[in-house]
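Re: your question from the hallway

Yes, I did run it. Sequences:
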Amino acid sequence: MVLLCLISQKETYGYEIISNLNQKGGGILGEAREGTVYPILYRLEKAGLVQSRLAPAANGGSRKFYSLTEKGHETLAELTVFWGEYAHCIDRFITLSKEKSK
Amino acid sequence: MNAKQYRRRVKKALSLPAGEKRKILRDLDEIFRSAEENGESETDVIERLGSPTEFAAGFGSQKKFRPIGSIILTGGAVILFVLSFIAGNSIHLEKETLGVIGGADGPTQIYISSSFNWNMIFSWTGGILLLGALVLLIFSIIQYRRNQK
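Structure:
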């Protein structure tokens, strides 16, 4: 889901995704590594949530740029709703337990 | 292990259609190149990626132990052995029938010897195939073990 959020902001590529993850989510999400991020991107693409295009990179190789597909946007919207409900639900439990311990 | 060796091992560990493999290996090349661009060494990257098998497994494909080659060869060997057996038996039958008919000794002899050769050819090729199957099986076991590490 985090990856979908990142990709939805702008077309991006592997290394940028990883450094973004480490900057913004560092500490809490744990260190993002190629060995985990690339396989997820591969599966997201296979599931039809993201699409990619190859572009030549300055370093002589090619770079794969990812963007969300229509289905990817829909899934992100669904996940966002779900996450909101989930977080709200957990919050309620926390509030209850706080009230009890007062 | 350098990047090239790593790449080769990942390629071996992946059991996906060739097109998918190519995609993943291209991704791997990009990983190495991006890291290099940012001043990291191949060793740094490899350490972070984990073993080639682990990396390949992330893509949802781990090579299973499938000694297909040796199975096919063994099958071929069995068929050939059966054929040689049948050939051997039919020669006896034909020899007898020839005897009953009372054909000349000369032609009969030639017939037997030529049939006998067929029998030999069948069993010899069968034997060679079986040997090949054994070698392939041992080879695939070694490779599988190495991939497991």
